[in-house]
C-alpha cells in the first residue's frame, strides 16, 4: 500500500505541471465553424472542411482520412480536451459522425481517455458509421461506461478512474471494432474517411425519456414501466425488445418522444399516454397500433384510420 500511494503521488505531481490541465470546460463545443481544427491531431490527417457538416451545407466539420495505406482511423486532443473532468462536472461526451467513402468495411467508433490513473475506453462503441448521413452519439464517462485498458507509457500499475478523470491528458476518438483494445496494442488497420462535428462536453447523460431502470445482471439493458425492455449501449440508438433499432431525437421529452424507427423507415411519435398507439409520419401519416406479441423480426400493426393491418418486414400477414 505505501508503494502504491508513492507512485500515485508521483503521477499526480507530474500531471499538475501540465499547463493544459484546466483546459476542459462544461458544455464546451468544437463545432469547427471558424476554420480551426481546435488542437485535434494524429496520423489520420485531421483536416477542416468548410462545407457539409452536421448543421447544414455551409457548416464546417473535422475530417479524418485513411485512403491509401491501411492504418489507425482516429484523432486525439491534448489541449482543449485535457484537464479536470471531475471538477468541471464532465459526465459525457457527445458528437456527430458521418462517413464519406463507400468501402465495404465497417467503422465503429469509441472513446479513450488517458491520465495518471491509467487509460480507459468506453465499453460501448457506435454502430457501423453510416455513409453520407450525420448521426449523433453520446458516450458516458462513469465507472459503468468505461473499462481500464492500460497504465500509460510509464506504467505504474495504477487502475484509478477518478485519478484519470481529475487529470485527463488526452481524449482519443478512434475506430475500434471489437472489445476495447489495451493500451500499447492497436485495433486492426483499415481505410476510411470520417467526418466529426459538434464535439461537446456534457454535465450529464441525456434524460432517459422512457423512465427506464437498470436490469440487474444485464449490462446496458433498461426496463421501462410502459416501454418495456431496451438496450442503451449505443444511445441515442436503442435496441428495443419488440421494435429493434430506434433513434431517440434529442428534442424528445417524457411527454413528447420522437424516434426514427429503422424497421418502419419513418419518424414516429409516442409517449406513455398514447402507447401502444404510435403516430407514424411519412407518406401515409396516421396513428398505428403495435401488438404486444411483436418481436424484432416479426412486427404487426393496425392503422387507426381504416383498420388495415401491415407488418415489418412486409408480407408476414396470413390471410
Q: Helices, strands, pairings?
A:
Blueprint: H1 2-16, E1 29-30, E2 40-41, E3 47-49, E4 61-71, E5 74-77, E6 92-99, E7 109-114, E8 119-122, E9 135-140, E10 146-150, H2 161-166, E11 170-175, E12 190-202, E13 213-214, E14 221-224, E15 228-231, E16 237-240, E17 244-248, E18 257-261, E19 266-270, E20 277-280, E21 286-290, E22 299-303, E23 309-312
Antiparallel strand pairs: 1-12, 2-5, 3-4, 4-12, 5-11, 6-9, 6-12, 7-8, 7-11, 8-10, 13-14, 14-15, 15-16, 16-17, 17-18, 18-19, 19-20, 20-21, 21-22, 22-23
Written description of the protein model:
It contains 2 helices and 23 strands. The chain is mainly beta and 319 residues long. Mean pLDDT is 88; it is low at 4-21.
Name the CATH architecture of the largest domain.
Sandwich
Total count of helical runs of at least 4 residues: 2
User: How much of the polypeptide forms β-strand, as a percent range?
Assistant: 35-45%
Give the C-alpha Rg.
22 Å
Strand order of the largest sheet: 13-14-15-16-17-18-19-20-21-22-23
Category from helices, strands and their pairing: mainly beta
When the domains are counted, the total is: 2
Query: Which CATH top level class of the largest domain fits?
Result: Mainly Beta
- Shape descriptor reads globular
**The CATH topology of the largest domain, please?**
Jelly Rolls
Overall strand count: 23
**Helical fraction:** under 10%
Mean pLDDT: 88
Amino acid at each position: 500500500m505505501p508503494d502504491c500511494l508513492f507512485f500515485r503521488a508521483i503521477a499526480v505531481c507530474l500531471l499538475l505541471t501540465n499547463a493544459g490541465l484546466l483546459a476542459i470546460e462544461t458544455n464546451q463545443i468544437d463545432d469547427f465553424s471558424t476554420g480551426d481544427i481546435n488542437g485535434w491531431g494524429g496520423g489520420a490527417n485531421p483536416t477542416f472542411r468548410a462545407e457539409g457538416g452536421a448543421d447544414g451545407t455551409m457548416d464546417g466539420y473535422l475530417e479524418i482520412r485513411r485512403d491509401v495505406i491501411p492504418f489507425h482511423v482516429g484523432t486525439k486532443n491534448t489541449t482543449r480536451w485535457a484537464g479536470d473532468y471531475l471538477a468541471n462536472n464532465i459526465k459525457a461526451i457527445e458528437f456527430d459522425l458521418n462517413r464519406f467513402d463507400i468501402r465495404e468495411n465497417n467503422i465503429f467508433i469509441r472513446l479513450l481517455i488517458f491520465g495518471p490513473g491509467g487509460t480507459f475506453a468506453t465499453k460501448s462503441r457506435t454502430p457501423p458509421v453510416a455513409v453520407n448521413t450525420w448521426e449523433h452519439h453520446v458516450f458516458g464517462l462513469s465507472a459503468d461506461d468505461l473499462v481500464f485498458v492500460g497504465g500509460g507509457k510509464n506504467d505504474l500499475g495504477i487502475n484509478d478512474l477518478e485519478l484519470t478523470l481529475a487529470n485527463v491528458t488526452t481524449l482519443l476518438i478512434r475506430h475500434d471494432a471489437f472489445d476495447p483494445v489495451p493500451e500499447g496494442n492497436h485495433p486492426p488497420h483499415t481505410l476510411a474517411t470520417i467526418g466529426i462535428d459538434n464535439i461537446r462536453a456534457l454535465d450529464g447523460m441525456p434524460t432517459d425519456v422512457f423512465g427506464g431502470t437498470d436490469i440487474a445482471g444485464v449490462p446496458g439493458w433498461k426496463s421501462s414501466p410502459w416501454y418495456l425492455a431496451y438496450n442503451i449501449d449505443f444511445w441515442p440508438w436503442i435496441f428495443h425488445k419488440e421494435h429493434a433499432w430506434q433513434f431517440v431525437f434529442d428534442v424528445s421529452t417524457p411527454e413528447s418522444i420522437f424516434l426514427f424507427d429503422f424497421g418502419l423507415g419513418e419518424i414516429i411519435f409516442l409517449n406513455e399516454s398514447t402507447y401502444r398507439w404510435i403516430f407514424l409520419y411519412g407518406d401515409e401519416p396516421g396513428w398505428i397500433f403495435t401488438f404486444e406479441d411483436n418481436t424484432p423480426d416479426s412486427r404487426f400493426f393496425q392503422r387507426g384510420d381504416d383498420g388495415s393491418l401491415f407488418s415489418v418486414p412486409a408480407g408476414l400477414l396470413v390471410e
